[in-house]
Amino acid sequence: MTDESAESRSAPPRAVGVVLAGGQGRRLGGRDKALIEIAGEPLVRHVVRRLCHQVDAVVVSANGDLNRFRSWGWPVITDTELDADGATIGPLAGVLAGLTWAAERSPEPDCVVTVPVDGPLLPDDLVRRLVSAALEQDVLVACAASRGQVHPVSAVWSLACLDRLRNMVVQAGARSADRVSRDLGRAVVDWQAEVADPFLNINEPGDVDAAERVLRANS
Question: In angstroms, rounded to a whole number, what is the distance separating the alpha carbons of residues 21 and 6?
Fold first, then answer.
């Protein structure tokens, strides 16, 4: 084995981060979650900032008018799998869109790491721990967990699962990220949440206040 081949084998997996911003924010009065301001900045900027240094590239998966994100300079992709009314089928559409986008890159990355746009407290070791678990347990998916709850869209997805995932979503009509990740074979990595849950989602007005307190305390 040459030194060059040994180095390539030991290199960390190449990862693309995909921020899932296709939700409709029904419990927040239909507001665009990605643009809700917390501690002076929109949610999407908090999430991208926490993710970008952990991956090789970041893209935003969204629906509607994509121009609302373009001023920040991130690649923006849109769901191709929609329901009969033209609405997104849920987070799996974003996962599938992210994997499809990544598979068209050169060189092709090894995995995609998906996170929800309403999770502004993501841990700095998210990608490292998820990728390590997937490799150690030889599985296609590794999901985060905290406080006894699995977070199936805060997860790493191997590019090797793209065709199977497409069949599950498009052909079989799968809609549950939790069920799909279990069917593909997943590892679960638990984070301790002694003070603030690093996977807090902004679903209600009270969640905005809770996240803002944490962010301002840590600024």
Answer: 39
